[in-house]
Amino acid sequence: MTSRSESGIRVRGRAPKGVDGAAASALPVAAGLLTATLALLMALIAFGNITDFGTNQAFVRHVLAMDTTFKDPDLMWRAITSHTLQDLAYVAIIAWETLAALVLIAACAVWLRDGRRRAGNARARQLGTYGLLMVLLLFGAGFMAVGGEWFAMWQSKDWNGLEAATRNFLLAAATLILLHLPGAATRSESDAGNEAGNEAGSGAGDDTESARIPQPQSRESQ
């Protein structure tokens, strides 16, 4: 911030931090906490499917078999009735959930360990992005598109997971957006860029300001 004194000399100073600065400094914390929330959610989902294998196994079997839909002949050719294929699909889902949870947990670990350093923060955001994209693909492409539309899960009153899939998809999408907002970088990373910019501009600013200082006139010229 530059101000002009009564003598006409321009004075440089740093603008005080206000509400915007406080909000920007809270963005990295919010992004980290939401990423940790998704990591916990995915870990619990995977853990539940592994330790209680039979509950969602029945869900996947009914969705793929399409036996609780309207049974439209134009759609029923899509059904998968083989229990082997159904169980393979369920195991693949659990493996994807587990991998997504591990990637998100790794992102949180890097944040806690090296988040204050520029390289560590960039690595954490990269891992967080990969994990969140895996969650979006699982619930968006897997449950909403393939399960909901291809296997007509929306027609079933008993085996319909679209509400839960939409909730998880939106949470992951909001976290991914927040993670990539300009202010979501750690404060140390942002300050490093700001300080470099300030140092680059201070030299030119000082030369310009010194030229603006009025020079005293000699008595002879008067």
Structure description:
This protein is mainly α and 222 residues long. The protein contains six helices and two strands, in the order E-E-H-H-H-H-H-H. The protein has helices spanning 19-51, 53-65, 83-114, 118-150, 162-179, 187-212; strands spanning 2-4, 10-12. A two-stranded antiparallel ribbon has the order 1-2. The protein is elongated and about 60 Å long. The relative contact order is 0.14.
Q: Which characteristics define this entry?
A:
single chain; two-stranded antiparallel ribbon; 6 helices; 70% helix; elongated
List the helices and strands and how they pair.
Elements: E1 2-4, E2 10-12, H1 19-51, H2 53-65, H3 83-114, H4 118-150, H5 162-179, H6 187-212
Antiparallel strand pairs: 1-2
Helix pairs in contact: 1-2, 1-3, 1-4, 1-5, 2-3, 3-4, 4-5
Quickly describe the structure.
The protein is mainly α.
| Gross geometry | elongated
Counted beta strands: 2
Quick one: biggest sheet? 2 strands, antiparallel
Low-confidence stretches: 5-11, 188-196, 218-222
Measured between the Cα atoms of the first and last residue, the distance is 36 Å
Order of helical and strand elements: EEHHHHHH
| Mean pLDDT score | 82
What does the radius of gyration come to?
29 Å
Q: In DSSP terms, counting alpha (H) and pi (I) runs of 4 or more, how many helices? A: 6
- Amount of beta strand: under 5%
Report helical residue fraction.
55-70%
Tell me the structural class: mainly alpha
Biggest sheet strand line-up: 1-2
